[in-house]
């Protein structure tokens, strides 16, 4: 029995030393200071447990769980620093608070007289079990938070959607000129701009039109290349195009009304450019 009581403090002391070294040497703390706060709170918990001289199994498990949790957090954040967002920061704040609350309670218990702690042994065990459950919950919530952050990051970085339509960002396109306004049949008016994407001329249409409609492949219908990223407030879609000479364009038109319309539009556009 005496041998076991000597081993536990040594193990606890080694855990404290390991966390102190980790806190002093971790490179991630400068980028995410809350990791340092979590480590400091965990060290406080272990030192408070050490002062209680409590050899209960639940206390040993609390010390072990605390040490494992914060080492896991430090390792996970170090390996995936690019996924740390506001939600993970808030989660680390919550974990730091849980550890500080445990530290406060254990510290108060360590200051009680030995006979008082002996009489309250059963209630102390129940309380420590609650702490262990809180740490288990904190571990699960941190993992879930990291997975959600990874999912958001993947969505932000995605290049194609499930229909294999390309996802565009404003930085992907070089705007050249505004062509004209358009008024489709569904009444969702928008503007059309000529742009360059990967050395190709495309038409960029600013509109809230849903991209869920079925695609139509036809040689006389412009192919939709993709649309704006869902996270971008300004919605637009991108259509392939090519520049044709006026003779080529007119030569393809068989309808007389359409021919006159294209001709008049060309004349008006040329006059407008000349006046400018």
Give a quick rundown of the structure.
By secondary structure, this protein is an alpha+beta fold. The chain is built from eight helices and six strands, in the order ααααααββββββαα.
Describe this protein's structure.
The chain is α+β, with helices and mostly antiparallel strands. The protein has 3 domains: 156 residues; 85 residues, Phosphorylase Kinase, domain 1 (2-Layer Sandwich); 32 residues, no CATH class. The protein is 58% helix and 13% strand. It has 8 helices and 6 strands, in the order ααααααββββββαα. It has a 6-stranded mixed sheet with strand order 1-5-6-4-3-2, with no helix packed on it. Strand 2 and strand 3 form a beta hairpin. Helix 2 packs parallel to helix 4 and helix 4 runs antiparallel to helix 6. The chain is rod-shaped. The termini are far apart. The N terminus is likely disordered.
List keywords for this structure.
276 residues; alpha+beta; Phosphorylase Kinase, domain 1; 3 domains; six-stranded mixed sheet
Q: Report the β-strand fraction as a percent range.
A: 5-15%
Placed side by side, the strands forming the largest sheet appear as 1-5-6-4-3-2
Q: Count the helices. How many?
A: 8
What profile does the largest beta sheet have? 6 strands, mixed
